Amino acid sequence: MNIAIIGSGNVGGALAQQWIKAGHHVLIGAQFPLSEKNISLATKIGEDRFAVIENAVKQCEVILIATPPEAILEILEKLGDVTGKTIIDATNAIMKTPEPYKTVYHALADKTNAEIVKCFNTTGFENMLNPLYQGEGIDMFMAGDSDKAKGVAKKLALDCGFGSCIDFGKSDKVELLEKFALSWINLAIMQGMGRNLAFKVLHR
What we know:
This protein is α/β, with parallel strands linked by helices. It contains 8 helices and 10 strands. The protein has helices at 10-21, 36-45, 53-58, 72-79, 104-111, 125-129, 147-160, 174-190, and strands at 2-6, 25-29, 50-51, 62-65, 86-89, 115-119, 132-133, 136-137, 139-143, 164-167. An 8-stranded mixed beta sheet has the order 3-2-1-4-5-6-9-10, sandwiched between helices. A two-stranded antiparallel ribbon has the order 7-8.
């Protein structure tokens, strides 16, 4: 796949590295492609993988949003026509919401004609870089109305090494999925259990 990652922080950087390893073509879309933070990531994935947001999106059929949620309204102005493209919302509007929307997913659903899915938001970037615990892949989760976008998200989750990508439900479960992310944050950080902690659904 040709994937544009908007946001070059920990999550965007981790997924970029994993998807490049899996053989996908990845571009990092950034407002300032040669910023100090991006240069640090460029040493791992190559300087040729950075472009301004508009150019990155134009060249790719899959777009991952991994920015602070309040940045989405500015980003939307730079996406251009994304009709039919898949957009993966990996953000969490826990501390700040992208007013007037509850989540980035809702902003994307209202402002674009893209196929949208919420995914890659429920665990820390360390688990994206290495999703194996005792040799077994942990679970990723997704939510949204687009079956096409869910298919893309599932494939990309498995390509990262996750054991499965569990469907949390349609768009009415997007906010619940963000609260599930808060559960990980609560245990890992607020309760001091550490970031090497993950979720896996077990069946009897």
